[in-house]
Recover the amino acids of this structure.
């Protein structure tokens, strides 16, 4: 393992040529008990794996940044739809047996909401029969929409659960330039 650490320490930048001193090759040969060609193969494999891992990490980082940027847009869109749905109908199942499903008994009125990009949560304040039912979605990883004409189907994706619901929004309000003031887009500290 000490030899492998020495080899990885020799790797500085991806674009530079890499040289490994002969005494390191000798140590590798002793460890693998093989000829010089096998040792070269082993070292080249280690270096190749190292750079492959670096490239994969960089690609994953870039994809995560793109997803985060896309998620910001979806939060802003959700804010706009929720604002246009205030005091309007929302179809959502909130009881244990109806989580994430909709049906005839799952009709509520959206009274208020809180939305935070930094903390990745959404709280809906639903009303039915003069009672308020708050429901909160934590650790939101993704948000998706499907336009269904007079309503929009919304999916909230979380690590261990996904929810879907329909928002019956005011089209005139949606088309106006609205600033809800109900969304926090600041990153958490």
């Amino acid at each position: 393992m000490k030899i492998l650490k020495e080899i990885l320490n020799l790797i500085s930048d991806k674009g530079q040529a890499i040289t490994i001193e002969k005494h390191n090759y000798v140590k590798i040969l002793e460890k693998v008990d093989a000829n010089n060609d096998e040792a070269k193969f082993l070292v080249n494999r280690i270096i190749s794996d190292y750079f492959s891992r670096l490239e994969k990490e960089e690609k994953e980082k870039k994809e995560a940044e793109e997803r985060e940027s896309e998620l910001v847009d979806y939060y802003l869109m959700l804010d706009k739809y929720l604002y246009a749905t205030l005091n309007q109908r929302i179809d959502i199942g909130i009881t244990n047996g109806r989580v994430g499903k909709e049906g005839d008994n799952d009709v509520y009125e959206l009274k208020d909401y809180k939305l935070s990009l930094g903390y990745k949560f959404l709280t809906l304040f639903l009303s039915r029969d003069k009672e308020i039912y708050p429901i909160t979605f934590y650790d939101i990883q993704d948000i998706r929409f499907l336009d269904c004409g007079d309503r929009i189907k919304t999916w909230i994706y979380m690590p261990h659960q996904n929810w879907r619901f329909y928002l019956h929004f005011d089209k005139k309000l949606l088309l106006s330039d609205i600033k809800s003031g109900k969304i926090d887009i600041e990153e958490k500290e």
Observations:
- The mean pLDDT is 81.
- Residues 99 and 179 are 30 Å apart (CA to CA).
- The first strand starts at residue 89 and ends at 91.
- The two ends are 39 Å apart (CA to CA).
